[in-house]
Amino acid sequence: MTQNYPTKWFQIELARDVGYAAARFGHVMFPENVYEPALECAELLLEGVGKGWASRTFFSDNGSTAIEVALKMAFRKFSLDHGIILDSTDPNTTGKFIEVKVLFTN
Predict the structure, then answer these.
(1) What is the four-CA torsion angle of 28, 56, 62, 85, rounded to 10 degrees?
(2) What does pTM read for this prediction?
(3) Could you state, in chain order, the average pLDDT of each consecutive group of 10 residues for the chain (106 residues)?
(4) Does the CA dihedral 50-55-59-60 come out positive or negative?
(5) Could you report the per-residue pLDDT of 50-78, keeping only the tens digit for each?
(6) CB under 8 Å to 93, separation ≥6 — which residues?
(7) Cβ within 8 Å of residue 66, ≥6 positions away
(8) Which of 27, 66, 90, 103 has the highest count of CB atoms within 10 angstroms of its CB?
């Protein structure tokens, strides 16, 4: 009879390799931690296409989250540039307020 399943040693080797990969490329995102391939990619992006204007990178696990975060970052940048976001701890903070209207269509 032919053996149609992996040998014990193959299973052990496979489990070890999968465990190594899972530990190295886990899908847990912490802003203050990074694994080496993501860091290398970020450095290449900042030194290449982002040179002169980008100082940070953001990696997302899917397109809808990437768009959502990009919009939030754009609104925050716009708000900071136009004095919409003010320092709430400073009683002397004064600034102009403008109305922001956003139209989303399907």
Answers:
(1) 100
(2) 0.47
(3) 71 85 65 79 93 87 88 83 66 60 65
(4) negative
(5) 999 888 888 888 889 889 988 988 888 88
(6) 86, 87
(7) 58, 60
(8) 66
